[in-house]
Predict the 3D structure of the following.
Amino acid sequence: MATIKKIAITTGDPSGIGPEIVFKAIMSHEIAGLCEPIIIGDIAVVEEVAEKLNIQVDLNSLKIINTNEIKDRNFQRCQSTAQGGKACAAYIKRAVELALDKEVDAIVTAPISKESLKMAGLKWHGHTEMLAELTDTKDYAMMFYSNKLKLILVTIHTAIKNVPALITKNRVLKTINLAKKACYMMAIENPRIAVAGLNPHAGETGIFGDEEIREIIPAVNEAQNMGISVSGPYPADTLFHRAYNGEFDIIVCMYHDQGLIPLKMIAFDKAVNVTIGLPIIRTSPDHGTAYDIAWKGIANPSSMIEAIKLALKLRR
């Protein structure tokens, strides 16, 4: 009989939908009994969300690690706060400790607010950078998973004006290697990796930009010499359609919105964020704190459910 996996699940920003979707997910028929969830958050928040939103969950039957960052139910909701930012960081740190000590098999993180982290005086822009530092990881990337489309990003959260200078041969090559690792984690043994161009028509032989010629093509060529099944760069306006129809297993995207717009178009409620390169398994719903609908009991847990299911499937 297979051992039930232990999954550490952080409740995310207490002001947002994180606590709600965590409990809706673990109580759903898709997750209940599938794993042993270990909830990391604050008892005050957990009790409040169960009571206020009338979520039918027996808190005494769950393993809940109380960080005691929020000590009572009198906390601000539906907005970024320094208290929320500090709490989020505490949850994530504890989850990483459990994973590194192999007390859990994976971690799943509920949404946090970048503004709250900043208000709390923390230096990280989000989960990805925090997780990399906490695990002493140098090479990492954001991978996004859905049933029909999978992609990985060369650049993450940066202004569009900064992107061209960040598209270097080494950075593209590193991301291609991480794409191969991502496919291994998903049990895709012989992955077909496609690389998107940065410019319209992948530069059209330099007419619309030369980043493809100077940086991307040399990276693809070197990866091919390393034995990786990778091709491109392809024009992004046709590449996602080809991948959606099964021609490729994963796309290496040059910047955030290049990949996230088509992904969210087809899988807004089902997409999952995975940090590749870490010594631990970490997944997360591919959406934010949704302050506008937080604490109303109407948040959709679908992406959280998919994040937990994927965490159970991935291999280190």
The chain has a mean pLDDT of 95. The chain has eleven helices and eleven strands. The radius of gyration is 20 Å.
